[in-house]
Amino acid sequence: MNSKLNRLPIWLALTTALCTPSIVAAQSGEEPSPNVTVQERSRPDYDPIGIHAGSYFIYPSLTVEGAYDSNVFATKRDEKDDFFATIAPRIAAQSDFSRHQLNFTVGAEGAAYDQYDSNNYLDFFTDANGRLDITRDDTLSGALGVSRLHEDRSSPDSTGRGEDVTKYWQDVLRLNYRHNFNRFYGLIGGDITRFDFEDNGDINEDDRDRNQYRGRLRLGYNISERFSGFFEGAYDVRRYDNTPNDAGVDRNSQGYALRAGTEIDITGILFGELAAGYTHRTYDDDSLNSVGGLGGSGKLTWNVTPLTSIIFEARGEVQETTVVVDGDPATADFEKAVSIDVTHELLRNVLLNANAAFIRDDFEGTDRTDNTFQAGAGVTYLINRHLSLDATYRFSTRDSESTDADYSRSLVRLGITARL
User: Which of 74, 65, 63 is nearest to 116 (CA)?
Assistant: First the structure.
């Protein structure tokens, strides 16, 4: 790891702060809102007022950061470090209807590097999401989003340091309908996702352009006010624009996932859902083997005290990939990940955060397996309802069967956010 960063003082300071006895109890006299994390909790003295326009509240914000990256190309050898700056404007419009809901968000983030400007990027997005309360027991919800994003250098599919970062468009349409039958409920939904990659120098990225179609059905039973069990089945189809691709491989595929799980809602203390089961995917090309195994997803939030929230997340799913090992293309990336995130309210306007994650990528059809560990910490200082300061530190390291894919990386960010 780059010797320019001494992480020990940062970790000692944050560890000490997280272990400090709660001096906020006297400051926060009210009970926290149900099913809200410490990070998201309302703070009347520091929350932005927004702009009231008819039935909407509009919340503009602007974040400016200065950052340092110890390994901008995420490589094992000949690491290059650099400073960069980001700017991220955002406008959110939230409805204030007595029934139903319709929200809009538009935003962007641009980064400019001091030395290695091939890492510069400009991401932007717009999305709308809403809920139609048809009856007390019938709800229709949906979302529509368009984004232009970039692929981080640490991605196994990254094209390397000789080209710019890979940029792509992602469009999403999602619909869900839920009906309650006394203690039983049913949910049926689906989504369409479009990926459109931009060519990167001499690299033709058109082979990655694709549409993904997914449908799902969930049947559940409310065991009590606090627990419910469910069974869910999903089927999805992935269709590429170019088949076969430049390497002569047809990556079109179809797959299914069967899961059983539980929803937990111990109001204000523990809430979320966990599901596990089996996932399987087959490919149109006979040279690509089928992929199957244990899959699932889950997110649980535990409000340990009125001042501390812990969020646990886990997932296991089959991802698309362009990784090639010794001339053999990987069938898929069977990714499994677990993470934990802790937020503590040290003072009413000072929030501390620590997080860690482990990600395992199995590139099916090859000998390559990647194990990635990530850890980070940060502090947010709410100056007033219009300004806040953030400082974060992020460390990541990858151990791969492909030695050229190993890397270690530190990222430090200092930023200020202005809100109305």
Answer: 74
Residue 264 near residue 300, CB atoms below 8 Å: yes
* Per-residue pLDDT tens digits for 334-376: 999 999 999 999 999 999 999 999 999 999 999 999 999 999 9
For the chain, counts of helices (H) and of strands (E): 1, 21
Q: Which two tokens stand for residue 261?
A: 């799980």
- Would you call 198 helix, strand, or coil by DSSP? coil
Expressed in angstroms, the distance from the first to the final Cα of the chain is 40
How far apart CA 220 and CA 276 sit, in angstroms, is 15
For the entire predicted model, the pTM comes to: 0.86
Q: What is the Cα–Cα distance from 388 to 416, expressed in whole angstroms?
A: 6
Whose CA is closest to 283, among 241, 245, 316, 255?
A: 255
Token pair in block for residue 417: 């956010």
What value, to the nearest 5°, has the Cα angle with vertex 113 and ends 108 and 117?
A: 100
Q: Which two tokens stand for residue 40?
A: 């998201």
Q: What is the pLDDT of residues 235-263, one digit of tens each?
A: 999 999 998 988 888 999 999 999 999 99
CB 217 within 8 Å of CB 258: no
H or E segment and range at residue 372: strand 369-382
- Lookup: tokens for 182: 């006394």
Whether 77 and 39 have beta carbons less than 8 Å apart is answered as: no
Q: All domains of the chain, ordered by start, with CATH?
A: 8-419 (2.40.160)
Query: Which amino acid, residue 132?
Result: L
